[in-house]
Fold these 4 entries.
Entry 1:
Amino acid sequence: MKRLFTYLLLLTCCTNTGNAQNTKKVLLSAGANIGYVGTYDLAVFWGTGIGVSMQAEYPVTEKMHVLVFAGHDHYLGYSLLNGDKPPAIKMTAVRTGAKYYVYRQFYLAAQAGLGIAGGGGEIAALSTFGIKGSSFSYTPQAGYTFIIHQKKRIDVSARYEMFHYRKNFQTAGCRIAWVF
C-alpha cells in the first residue's frame, strides 16, 4: 500500500517538473471516501466503508482534465443473525480517467483501472464470495469544486464504483478532498 502511494506521488512529481515550462499546473488532491456497498446480495454482509485517496489532475484544455487516482477503502462486515461476522474487505484502486467541467465548477468524470481486494488474512472467506485478487474497476462520478480562496479548493463528488469479480462489488458514495 505504501508503495502504491509512493509511486503515485513520484509519478505526479515527475509530471509536474517535466512540465515546468508549461503554464498548466497539475492539481493534487487528498481526501476521504465514504461509501456503501450497493450489491444487494453483498450488502447483507458488508455495509459502510471509509477510506482515503489521492488524485492528480492535469488540465488538457480549460474544461477537460486528465486524472490519475489511487485510493484505499475499508468495508467492515456486519454481524449476522447466526452470530457469524464476515471478514472486512479492503479495496485498493488505481485508475486513470478524464474530468469535464460542464458548467463553471460542476463536472462529470469517469475513471477506469485496476481494483485489488484484500482482507485481514481471511482471503479464503472472501473467495467464497468471488472477491479476491485484482479486477477491472471503473467509476463514473459527478462533483463540484468549491473555490474558497484564490488557490484553495475543496472538491466534493458523488461516485459509483464497480469492481468486476465473480460477484460484482459495487459501491455508491462520496469523496471530499482538499485540492492543493
Entry 2:
Amino acid sequence: MVDDRGSSEARTGVAGKRSAWKANPEVKTGGHLFFGRGAIGILAAVAIVACGAGARSAATNSGRATPAPATSAAAPVSTPPALPPTGGPAPSQLIGNWYQVASSTIVLTLTATGYVLRDTAEQGSGDIVVHANEIDFFSGTLCSLVLPQGVGRYHWTLQGAQLHLAPLNTDPCGRIALLTNQSYTKPVS
C-alpha cells in the first residue's frame, strides 16, 4: 500500500483512529482515495470472479447450468472375447446319440457344433469343434471356466459303431470323468 503520510500518521490514521480511515473510503489524503488491506483483498476477489464470469457456461432452456462433461483417465481397454479352438463342425459319422459302454445311463449327444452329456444325476452341454481326429469340448454349462480356459481336447477314433475318446490334455471341467478313456456305442439304425 502506498502511503503519502508520515509514519506516525500512517500508523494512527486521521485523528488517531486507524480503523476509521481504513474502513472508510471517503477519507482522502493527498488527493488519493485510501482503502484498507481488507478492502483491497475484496476488490481482488471481485476482479477474479468477474474474470471468471466471462467463461462460457452451457445452460439449458430451463435456465439451469449444465455441468461440463467430466474428463477422465484413459477409458479401460476391453479385452476382445477369446476365439474358440480351431476346427470345424463334427463329421456326419460323429453326429448322434452315443451310449457309454461302461454305463448305459450315460449318453453323449453330438451335433455339428455342440454336445449334450447326460447321466442320471445331471446334464451338461456346450460347444465342440473337430480338427482331423481331435475333438475339443468347451463353453460347457457345468464348467465355470471361459475361453481360452475350460477346453477339453480328446483324440477320437471310430471302430465300427464304437467311439473311443482319449485325452490330449487334462480337461479342467467335470466332463473329464465321463469322457476320458471311455468308449461309446451308437445304436444301428
Entry 3:
Amino acid sequence: MAMINHYFGSRGGLIAEAASTVYDLYVDAMARGVAEAPHDPQERLRAWMTTQVQFALERPGWMVVLNYPDLTLENPVEFNELFRARMTLGFELNLSRLAQLILDVKTGSVTEIELTEDNFDRARYLGDPRLVELTASVAMSTLGSAVWGAGSHAPSRSTAEALALRDHVMATHHSNVIRFIEGEEL
C-alpha cells in the first residue's frame, strides 16, 4: 500500500489514473477501428459502433467507471482535479470524429483528414446543435448496446435468448442507426 500511496496518493488515485488511461485507450481504439474499416462511410460508422461494443466486451466494468466516476471512484474530486481536462479533450475529439462519420454517411463520401487533438475544429463539430443531437443519439445508443452486449446489464445477463441473439441484435441495431442517420435532416 505504501508504494501505491507514494506514486498515486491513495488507492483511489490509482483507480482514477487507471480510469484515465483506459479512456485514452478507448479513444485510440475508436480511431483505429475506423481507420481499419473499408473505405465506405457506412462501414466506417459501423466500425465505430462495433469498436465501442468490442472495447466494452474486452474490458468488462470499465464503461461504468468511465461514465459514472462519481459513483464508482473513491475520490471523484481528486479524479476531476487530475484527469477531467484530459478526458474532456478525448471526449470532444471522439465526439467530433463521430460527428464527421455521421456527416460522411449523410454525404456518401469519406473525409480523408484524420481528426487529432491538434486539428479538430471544435466549433464545427460541437457548435451545430442538430449535429450534436444526432451525434449524442448515436453515441448514447451505442454505449447502451455496449453495456448490454458486454454482459454488464444485470437484468439481461441471465437471459439465454438475449445472449444467444447478441451479435445479431447488435448488427441490426447498427444498421438501424445508419438508416436513421440517412433519413435525418441536418
Entry 4:
Amino acid sequence: MLNWQGNLILDIIMRFFLALFLLFFSSVFSYADEKLHNHAFSPRQGATELVVKTIGEAEQSVCVAAYSFTSEPIAQALIDAHGKGVDVTVVLDKSQRKQKRSLYHRLKDSGIPTRINDNYAIMHNKFMVIDEKVLQLGSFNYTKAAEKRNAENVLVVRRNKKVIRSYADQCRKLWDEADQEGGATEAAMPYPTGGK
C-alpha cells in the first residue's frame, strides 16, 4: 500500500514540475517569437500603430518603398526619425506626384530625400527596411484609408538577414532608378550602406 501511494505522490510531483517546465518555456518561446515577428491588421486593429512604433525604433536608417502615402501619423514618425538624425529615404509611385492627399511634398519639404519611381505601370511596393535589421511589409498602404476602411495586414520581421538584405537591395534599386527632382541633396542614397 505504501509503495503504491509513494508512486502516486512521485507521479504527481513529476507532473507538477513538468507542467511548470512547459509553462516557463512556452512563455520564453512566445516572448522570443514576439521579438522576432510582430503583426497587425486593419481597419483599426493596430496596423498604423505598429508601423509608427517600428519607425520609432530606428537608430540609423529607414528606407521606405511605397505605392501610396497619405498617412499623417506615419509621415510624422518619419519626420521625427529624420529630426533625430536617422537617415530616412522614401521612394514612391508616380501617382504620388499629383495625388491630392499625397504627403510626397510634405516629406520632401521636411528635408527627407524623397523620389518618384515611374519606371513601372505601378510601383506597388509597401515596405520599410529599418537599420538593416528590421523589415516591415504587408498589404498595408501607408494611407488613412488603409487604416480606417480597408482590410490590410502588416508584418514586422527581425533577424532574418537574408530576407532583410534582399529588401534593402530592392529599396536601393528602386531609389537608384527613380526620378531625382530634388537636386544635389538627393544625389546619393544614405541607405542602405551595405554591410554593417
